[in-house]
Amino acid sequence: MDFELLLCFILLIADFHRISCLFVTDINVPEIVDFRDNVTLSCSYDMSGHTLNSVKWYKDKMEFFRYSPMMHPVYMKFPVTGIQVQDGKYFCNESTCRIELSLLGAKSTGAYKCEVSGDAPLFKLADKADNMTVAALPQSDPLIESFNSMYRMEELLSATCTSDYSSLPTRLTWYINGEQASLGELQPSIDTSIPAHDYILRRQKLQVRFYLSGPRFYHAGKILELKCVAEIENFPELKRETSLNAALIHYDNLNNQMLIHAGSGASGSASAFTHHSSRKSIPLLFVIYLLLSSALSFL
C-alpha cells in the first residue's frame, strides 16, 4: 500500500473516532416540582474537538430556547405552552447550558430535551431528555388535632391527623410510640377536594382511637409519642411528618396522689368537726346545769 494512502486511511479512522465522540454527558431536569417554584434546567456536553454550532432546548418536541455562539442573536426564545424562560436567567458556553424557567401549572409537565450540534460540515447531533412532573405539592407538615398534653393509663385516646392540600394522592400513617397503628385503631379516612390553580387539590383526614393499655405503654415509661406521616407514592423525598408527646400517668402514681389528697382532706375535716363540736358543747352543758338546779330547788 502506498504510504500516502496508508496515512490518509489512518487519518480517516482518527477523524471518524473524533466525529463519533460528540455527546451530552449529563442532563439535570427535576423529576417533580411545585408549580409555584421556578426551575433550573441544565445539560453538560463533550464536544471532543467539534466546534459548537448550537444548543437547543425542547419541551415535548417543541423548541423553546436556543444558544448559537456563532450567530446573532446568540440567545433566542420561542413561545411554548406551559413554560417561560426568565429574562437574563440563562448561561451557556462550550461545555454547559443552564436556563431558569417560570412554570405555568399542570401544562408545564412534559419531556424536556437538550440537543447539541456541531458545526459544518457534519453538524453532528447529540441529545438527552428527561421527564418533569409539575404538581401542587403540600407546603406544610400534617396537622395533629385533639391531642392532650397528659393522659392516664386505660384512658381512651382519640386524635385526628390532617394533610396539607396536594394534587397528588397523599397517604397518612399513624405511629404510636414508634409502632404503626393497626387497622382496628383507625377510623375510615375522609377525603376533601377543591378545584384550584387548574388542579383538583385533595386533603386527607385520618382519626386514630385506642385505649392506653398493654405492654407498649407500660414499657414506655412516662412518655407517650404520637406521630403522623404524610407520604406521596413514588416520591419519598416529599414525605412530611409531625410528632407530639404527652405525659403518661400510671394508675399507681394516680392512686398515690389521690390518697395523699384524700388524707389531707380527711385531716382537715376532722379538725373542723372537733372545733365545731367544742363550740356546740357549751350550750348543751348549760342546759343540763339549769335542769339539775331546778330539780334540786324543788326538793
Main attributes?
single chain; 299 residues; alpha+beta; Immunoglobulin-like; 2 domains; six-stranded mixed β-sheet; five-stranded mixed β-sheet; elongated; disordered N terminus
Architecture overview:
The chain is an alpha+beta fold. It folds into two domains: about 20-135, Sandwich (Immunoglobulin-like); about 145-250, Immunoglobulin-like (Sandwich). Helices cover about 25% and strands about 45% of the residues. Strands 2-10-9-4-5-6 form a six-stranded mixed beta sheet, with no helix packed on it. The protein has a five-stranded mixed beta sheet with strand order 12-19-18-14-15. The chain has a four-stranded antiparallel beta sheet with strand order 1-3-8-7, with no helix packed on it. The longest helix has about 50 residues, at about 250-299. It is elongated.
